[in-house]
Specification:
The structure holds 2 protein chains of 2 kinds.
Chain A: E1 10-14, E2 17-22, H1 24-28, E3 43-46, E4 48-50, H2 56-60, E5 64-65, E6 71-72, E7 78-79, H3 85-97, E8 106-111, H4 123-127, E9 135-139, E10 145-147, H5 149-154, E11 178-179, H6 182-185, H7 189-192, H8 203-216, E12 218-226, H9 230-240, E13 248-254, H10 260-271, E14 282-286, H11 316-329, E15 333-337, H12 340-356, E16 365-368, H13 374-383, E17 386-389, H14 392-405, H15 408-413, H16 417-423, E18 427-429, H17 440-449, H18 466-480, E19 498-501, E20 518-523, E21 526-529
Parallel strand pairs in A: 4-12, 5-8, 8-9, 12-13, 13-14, 14-15, 15-16, 16-17, 17-18
Antiparallel strand pairs in A: 1-2, 3-19, 6-7, 9-10, 10-11, 19-20, 20-21
Helix pairs in contact in A: 10-11, 11-12, 12-13, 14-17, 17-18
Chain B: E1 5-11, H1 18-27, E2 34-38, E3 51-54, E4 58-61, E5 65-69, H2 74-82, E6 90-94, H3 101-110, E7 114-124, H4 128-131, H5 138-147, E8 150-154, H6 161-174, E9 179-182, H7 190-193, H8 195-203, E10 213-218, H9 226-235, E11 240-248, E12 254-260, E13 263-268, E14 276-282, H10 288-297
Parallel strand pairs in B: 1-6, 1-7, 2-5, 2-6, 7-8, 8-9
Antiparallel strand pairs in B: 3-4, 4-5, 10-14, 11-12, 11-14, 12-13
Classes of the chains: A alpha/beta, B alpha/beta.
Chain lengths: ~525, ~300
């Protein structure tokens, strides 16, 4: 990622920083050295940067994995993807048999019926796991949950006469056990082990999340929506400050719950607590919902299946006030916009704010921005916006977007990496872990190949090259975090952060990029082997 | 059995006067313990002279009222309200500018401890007709108005009488499911906004004389088909904005009747309350004659 010195055989490290990269001969000019040959047969890349993830994935692994795809847990165990509801019941049963306290709830995560012909899990299915303890499985979207009869009973929802779009009823008039929005999940959550404020990780979860970072070659990672109350702040400072904590975490304060003035004051104060491994002082705004949940705000002609337009989570007035205050306080903001109408709102609003208060290098970033068209990318470029596209979506939900949500033409241009780069918009690509697994090399593969789960190439014209994708998961993402001067490339003076790989991503071939084996990481000069976790 | 805790949702876009209305209700609470739930404490959420104490997410207000911020977890905040001691008499949810009131009501309905007391949506007489055409927010504002049982057309003093009339008749046509009440400076009569005030003014109704409102207490002389009665009150063009009270059904059971706008609801009464349904309407349009007839002959 350093064009003046693109490859090197050796790298010299001092005090956690890169002293230089080059041949052994060039580097010995710095004086006495200790030669460390443990990576002689490995490939060192700049430590990978994940620009959109949530540390809560660490906490989710305390529950039973029920996803469709194989996935590795923090301890390196690969959990086989479950292809049928019976298989899910079986895995939950195995976990249930190990519980000793008869009242302890059992919960799982990452269910996605889309891959199982949309067959719904019912409370009867989960009653086969247990009739006496509450059982729940959270969907991959994080917005739907299935529970058993006991859980409904404990939450007072095992009754007829419920009239709520989020609670489907069976023929007997009782809920099927599916709970289809966060507000209907709340009454059940405490009974099934999903506590309030699910987006924040706990202490053990943060340590586990860091293990996932090592396994994925990630040395800098965002936590892109945290409440950051005093307690969470104290915990994150303490855990990231531990001697062997292997990653630099960049939390973004979620905008809801505070007025714009309070928000900016709060984040300004947070900045003073920043450390090398916990970078505080940024804001995350959510403008709309999700495309597969039909809650994103999209422009004409709307959803392909005729669903009504989605929901706003912010008003133009609120957005404008937060932008104005943040620009003058030198705080940067990442804004979730899934639909193209939401992207338009942010472009319009930021344009007005920048007219009042020009700011040549604000690094405001549109997150997901999945439906943006070429004209919107041109506006982003003019306004100095960065973009972080959800490349993994092609693989996981590309077929659904083609068939149901936005239809063929718009599905082809979703997450338009090629257009972003050609237009000169600084670009990163992301996983949104836990929504999809933390694995930037997989994300790079997704952006390069644009292959859907069914194996179709979707949007040939928006493919990018391997080099461009590798740039996006290192210095591209670092740029959106204002950290490109410190991390993202192997160059003198930068942090000694490396992804240590068994294979060379530049030569393994575009189709194989996701199969590059990760040995571990070096973070701030400290070595972390995945095998030792 | 503890009676259910009534919840009213106050909706409307930014600047329509929700906060002013809430403060007006607090000033006129008269011993009613109101709990106000807001997304976040804005700078002017509660008038300073009403505040007794402030904590992180709770403001204590003169007269035993409180105001809580719920951020993004309304259900959790409601569940907390039900466990307060002393329990509030009425909960008001001041929804955010982009919230869809009916989805808030759907959430409230899930919780057994609560009953819904209708959706009151404020509209700024000066801007509402442009509001529904707003490039980004237009359909959201339309959804809010379509959800309303009562639309409070606010700031009518800031427009001339033609605009006021035109706006009112446009609202009447487009959103005919709602009753429309005009007001200035957010000072909608408390009995319009919350049924709990209606019950109270039933006991001492003299102050109504100063307003545009009128009240009639319907006391059916004999047992009655309560469903037909409730439907008539809601949909019979009798000039009723709200009605609440008890009637004896044909089987002799006491039934609670609640009407707000054109929505009605009947449910079994707790205890053995006195028969009588307080009907609130406009002086000009409340049809006392028909109401009296209903009481005697239906």
């Amino acid at each position: 990622m350093n064009p003046s010195n693109p490859t090197a055989t050796h790298v010299a490290v001092r005090d956690g920083l890169i002293l230089g990269a080059g041949s052994l001969e060039e580097l010995t000019s710095w004086g006495e050295y200790q030669l460390d040959e443990q990576f002689a047969d490995k490939v060192l890349m700049p430590g990978l940067v994940e620009g959109h993830a949530h540390t809560m994935e660490g906490s989710l692994w305390q529950k039973v994995y029920c996803g469709f795809f194989d996935r590795m847990d923090p301890n390196g165990k690969v959990w086989e993807g479950l292809k049928t509801i019976d298989a899910i019941i079986e895995r939950l049963r195995e976990a249930e048999a190990k519980l000793t306290d008869p009242d302890q709830p059992l919960s799982g995560w990452q269910l996605d019926p889309i891959y199982m012909n949309n067959e719904r899990v019912t409370r009867g299915d989960l009653d086969k796991v247990s009739k006496t303890r509450p059982v729940a499985v959270l969907h991959a979207s994080g917005h739907i949950m299935n529970v058993n009869t006991k859980a409904l009973e404990l939450a007072g929802l095992l009754k007829t006469g419920i009239n709520h779009p989020g609670i489907p009823l069976a023929k007997d008039g009782l809920p099927t056990g599916e709970l289809k929005s966060p507000e209907v999940m709340t009454p059940v959550g405490p009974h099934v082990g999903f506590e309030r404020a699910m987006t924040d990780c706990d202490e053990a979860g943060l340590r586990d999340f860091a293990k996932l970072c090592i396994r994925a070659g990630v040395t800098t990672v965002t936590d892109l929506a945290s409440q950051l109350n005093d307690e969470a702040l104290e915990m994150m400072l303490r855990v990231t400050g531990e001697k062997n904590f292997p990653a630099r975490v960049v939390p973004f304060r979620f905008f809801l719950g505070l007025t714009p003035k309070e928000l900016v004051a709060n984040v300004t104060k947070l900045q003073t607590h920043s450390t090398d491994r916990l970078r505080l002082g940024q804001i995350k705004i959510v403008a709309d919902g999700s495309i597969q949940g039909f809650s994103a705000r999209i422009k004409w002609p709307g959803y392909h299946n005729g669903a009504p337009n989605g929901l706003w989570y912010v008003t133009p007035e609120q957005l404008s006030e937060i932008f104005d205050l943040s620009l003058s306080a030198d705080i940067f903001i990442h804004i979730h916009t899934n639909g193209d109408e939401a992207t338009d709102l942010v472009l319009d609003t930021l344009e007005q704010s920048l007219k009042k208060q020009p700011c040549p290098d604000h690094r405001f970033t549109l997150q997901h921005c999945q439906l943006a068209d070429a004209a919107q990318f041109r506006r982003m470029q003019k306004l100095g916006l960065c973009v972080n596209l959800f490349a993994n979506h092609h693989f996981y939900w590309g077929d659904e977007h083609y068939k149901y949500t936005v239809g063929p033409e718009r599905a082809l241009r979703m997450n338009a990496c090629r257009t972003a780069l050609d237009t000169g918009v600084p670009m990163a690509i992301h996983s949104d872990a836990p929504i999809t697994p933390l694995a930037p090399l997989f994300t790079a593969w997704a952006a390069v190949n644009r292959i859907t789960a069914s194996g179709r190439v979707q949007g040939e014209a928006e493919k990018i090259s391997v080099d461009e994708a590798l740039y996006a998961i290192t210095i591209g993402a670092a740029y959106t975090l204002k950290l490109d001067g410190e991390v993202g490339s192997i160059a003198v003076g930068k942090r000694a952060d490396f992804a240590v790989l068994e294979d060379d991503p530049e030569t393994i071939g575009a189709k194989n990029l996701k199969d590059v084996r990760v040995w571990g990481t070096v973070q701030g000069g400290r070595v972390f082997a995945a095998a030792d976790l | 059995m503890t009676p259910k805790l009534p919840v009213t949702v106050i909706g409307g876009y930014l600047g329509s006067g929700k906060t002013t209305l809430v403060n007006h209700l607090l000033r006129n609470a008269n011993g009613l313990r109101l709990a106000i739930l807001v997304n976040e404490f804005g700078e002017l959420a509660i008038d300073e002279d009403l505040i007794e104490a402030e904590e992180d997410d709770l403001i204590s207000i003169a007269g035993g009222c409180i105001c809580c911020s719920f951020g993004s977890d309304l259900t959790a905040a409601l569940m907390d309200m039900a466990t307060l001691d002393p329990r509030p008499d009425h909960v008001l949810i001041e929804s955010s500018g982009v919230a869809i009131p009916s989805s808030i009501v759907n959430t409230v309905r899930l919780l057994d401890t609560f009953s819904t007391d209708g959706i009151v949506v404020l509209a700024d007489a000066e801007t509402i007709q442009q509001g529904v055409k707003h490039k980004y927010m237009g359909d959201t504002i339309e959804r809010q108005l379509s959800d309303a049982n009562i639309i409070v057309l606010n700031k009518t003093d800031l427009v001339n009488s033609e605009t006021r009339q035109a706006t009112k008749s446009w609202l009447n046509t487009e959103y005919d499911q709602a009753s429309i009440v005009e007001t200035t400076q957010g000072k909608a009569p408390p009995e319009v906004v919350l049924a709990s005030f209606l019950e109270r003014s039933h006991e001492a109704s003299s102050h109504l004389e100063t307003t545009q409102l009128d009240m009639f207490t319907l006391r059916p002389a004999t047992p009655i088909d309560v469903e037909v009665l409730a439907k008539t009150l809601a949909e019979g063009n009798l000039g009723i904005i709200r009605a609440k009270g008890f009637a004896t059904a044909l089987d002799g059971e006491k039934i609670l009747v609640q009407v707000v706008g054109k929505r009605w609801e009947i449910s079994p009464a707790t205890g053995n309350p006195e028969v009588g349904i307080v009907c609130l309407g406009f002086k000009e349009t409340l049809n006392r004659e028909i109401l009296a007839n209903i009481a005697n002959h239906m």
